[in-house]
Design brief:
The structure is a single chain. By secondary structure, the protein is of the alpha+beta class. It has two domains: 340 residues, Sandwich (Jelly Rolls), CATH 2.60.120; 70 residues, no CATH class. The protein is built from 14 helices and eleven strands. The strands form two sheets. Strands 1, 2, 3, 5, 8, 10 and 11 form a seven-stranded antiparallel beta sheet that branches. It has a four-stranded antiparallel beta sheet with strand order 4-9-6-7, with no helix packed on it. Helix 1 runs parallel beside helix 4, helix 12 crosses helix 13 and helix 13 packs parallel to helix 14. The chain is globular and about 50 Å long. The termini are far apart.
């Protein structure tokens, strides 16, 4: 039955069945091929589930998993999803690739992935339903019992809210040693209590020889990597003490990886970006755990672009960051269903206003120090330039983009200033 459904799905909308995974990002593509609002793939859940039904239980999580996470900063949990849930997640992912959303443009245009989109739950009903009802939320709540979150331990259960998700298909260039810092408006263990967990849900087997996530055990305990740094060098600070304790995971379809946001890790892409017709589909992201507070940081935060009205220090209780454990909230579900949780011009303006903060300058510096300078400047700047292109398309009818930022590191700050001025002028019209 599952094989028949898979064949039917491929025939309808799996782009790989037609030899094409990566959507185009040209002018005509932006006009005709990308959705801008809410999407519904009309893919049935694995079985009838009434709205408001709690997420499936997670009996597969053991004390050994909790001990491993607390000790190493990362854990691999096998068999989280049933075959039916795996097929459902694959189906909505393939549908999303075939019907790309405008917020996928920056990542797709960079070439880092064949397809990559942040906060898919906000725009695609299928991913929201997956987070509401699959065992993923229960697994995250159970692993929060590892000892890192005393508030929930004292209460007897851990509250889980979605901070951000990230749909990733086929990493072409890989991501070298780094820590995750696009976790939404959370401390993520920097400068305050730990309030987050990172996760991966894999839909495919790990190919032999590449694509496997690799972690430095216990690197979440490092004292060197700052909150705004992304890429790191393993010979700097206290990282050498973790550099030789490497663990590689080869997750299969339906497995999960869960890790501390400060854990240092990498993923190598396919040789020459050629996946040889295969797909490596992953739904990753960050969840807020227990009594998290909104962190109004002064850095570009692509997971915080909604008109939620929160300010620094407010409780992170909002339909923009919906609760999924112990159960979803009907009012928050309705708010999302009405299309109110997406990115807004107010949120975009807030993000643009942070481009010159010290946090962003440090973020850009970490990229430049690790990879080849010219290429890395391009990769750092490109998401901002594409976001500018999208906004100009909305505001002025796709007028031509102005001159690209100069790739000379000595002139980077001056170039960013031009971009910021252009954003301000456009958004003030």
């Amino acid at each position: 039955m599952i094989d028949d459904k898979k064949a039917e799905t491929a025939a309808k909308y799996d782009p790989s069945a037609r030899g094409n995974v990566r959507p185009g990002t040209g002018f005509v593509d932006l006009l005709t091929n990308y959705a801008w609002g809410q999407q519904s793939p009309n893919v049935a859940l694995p079985y009838p589930i009434a709205p408001g039904t709690p997420p499936e239980a997670a009996p597969m999580v053991t004390q050994e998993h909790l001990d491993t996470l607390a000790r190493d900063g990362v854990v691999h949990i096998k068999g989280v999803l049933s075959d039916e849930w795996v097929q459902y997640l694959r189906d909505i992912t393939d549908w999303q690739i075939a019907h790309p959303h405008i917020w996928a443009v920056p990542g797709v245009a960079s070439g880092l992935y064949d397809y990559i989109q942040r906060s898919t739950w906000t725009t695609n009903t299928g991913f929201a339903d997956f987070l509401y009802h699959s065992p993923v939320a229960s697994v995250l709540a159970k692993t929060a019992e590892c000892g890192w979150f005393p508030e929930g331990d004292a209460r007897g259960f851990h509250e889980i809210r979605v901070s951000t998700d990230l749909l990733m298909v086929n990493p072409n260039k890989g991501f070298k040693w780094h820590q995750d810092n696009q976790n939404g408006p959370l401390t993520s263990g920097h400068g305050g209590k730990l309030d987050a967990l990172r996760f991966w849900v894999t839909m495919d087997e790990t190919p032999a020889g590449y694509g496997a996530p690799v972690y430095l055990r216990k690197s979440h305990e490092n004292k060197f990597v700052d909150k705004d740094v992304v890429f790191v060098k393993l010979d700097e600070g206290d990282l050498p003490q973790y550099a030789d304790d490497v663990v590689e995971f080869r997750p299969g379809a339906g497995d999960m990886l869960i890790w501390h946001p400060r854990s240092v890790h990498k993923v190598d892409g396919a040789p020459n970006g050629d996946w040889q017709g295969r797909k490596r589909r992953v739904l990753g992201g960050t969840v807020a755990v227990d009594d998290a507070l909104y962190q109004g940081k002064k850095k570009a935060n692509f997971a915080d672009m909604g008109s939620h009205g929160m300010v620094h220090g407010d409780p992170l209780k909002s339909p923009y960051y919906p609760i999924i454990y112990p159960n979803s909230d009907p009012a928050e579900r309705a708010f999302r269903a009405d299309g109110k949780v997406g990115r807004s011009f107010e949120g975009f303006r807030r993000m643009v206003g942070t481009l010159f903060s010290s946090e962003n300058l440090q973020l850009f510096s970490s990229w430049s120090n690790v990879l080849k300078e010219g290429q890395k400047i391009k990769e750092v700047n490109e998401p901002f330039l594409w976001r500018r292109k999208v906004e100009e398309a909305v505001q002025t009818g796709f007028r031509r983009q102005r001159t690209m930022l100069n790739q000379n590191l000595d002139r980077q700050e001056k170039s960013f200033e031009k971009v910021r001025e252009a954003f301000t002028e456009t958004l003030s019209r």
